[in-house]
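DM from R.C. (forwarded with permission)

"hey, sorry to bug you on a friday — could you get me a structure for this? deadline for the figure draft is monday and I only need the backbone to look sensible"
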Amino acid sequence: MLQLGTQIDAKQELLNGHNTQTITYHTPQPTSFIAPYDYVRKMRASYYVLGPLLTKYGHVELSLPGGCAIGARPMDIHLTSLEQMGAQIEIKNGYVIANSNGRLHGAHIAFHAASVGATCNILMAAVLADGTTVIENAAKEPEIADLIDMLNKMGAHIEGANTSTLTIYGVEKLHGVTHQIINDRIEAGSYAIAAAITKGRLELINADAEHLKSPLDILRKMGVKIDITPNSIIVDAQNTILHGEDVYTDYYPGFPTDLQAQFMALMCVSEGAALITENIWENRFMHVPELMRMGANINVHGHASAIVRGVEKLSAAPVMSTDLRASFSLILAGLVAEGETIVNRVYHLDRGYETLEEKFKAVGADIERIKEND
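My reply, with the result:
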């Protein structure tokens, strides 16, 4: 995202403090309104420049996004919603070319699915639109409430945070702000599973249990001890016999699809059987063959469900990751497998897990990243 910001000539500065990072942005006038293929193909979230650039400057050219290959993720909700707000959209040579004659205007928009990306994009477009925009069936993830909080601090007028109906009253302009973003609940959940699968104990500093109710409830049912402190979650699986539990992914506040692969790895070494049902993406079991290479007992039914029967142990094997969360699931399996596991194609990993090796090493894992030319 920093590289993409540079592409549109945003002035940026990254400041590293003690356990913190601060990024400052200033964009007096972009010299480019293009989000090119080389950036967008690597990270689907690059499409978040669509709403802001269009509403503020009236023009944007966005390469059709790439990212993790977990199924069809069309941009139809984004584009049809912007068209309702007065945008002219053309798809040409692999790019979305969007224009507006003057300001976008408010509209009553009903999403056919509770898309996080579309909710954020339309929110950011609507804050500078002329009139009132209402989004129905908006996504309710905590990250959206955090975005709303920041936009309101900047002078926007948005009502309905944490609900499925958002009302945005357009304003003339926004102003600068200092904002501390919320913690990454998926990263926190992933390390909670790491504590469970290794029968260890980890304290997850700054993790918010309110954002992880469903995954933490499943860990408790499996036999993991969970303690909540004012500023952390303590996950303790020491001397615990884990039992498989069913997982059913759903939109927030349901169980997050982004923790499905990690929980599957955990079920592979838990007693009994567990049914994992994926309701969000149709192609999110690509880690299954790789886990089976390590000795997991998994039967996939159709494209939406898998039965995992726990085994006594996994065995190390060379495996290949297919997407961001699958990468972490294979690392989890490698932590408890007998022998040395090599996980290939981990380039997705850094988008979701900063300094992963250092964090794991600090709590006793034997893990290192192998450079391609090593």
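R.C.: lifesaver. The longest strand covers residues 11-17.
me: no worries. The mean pLDDT is 92.
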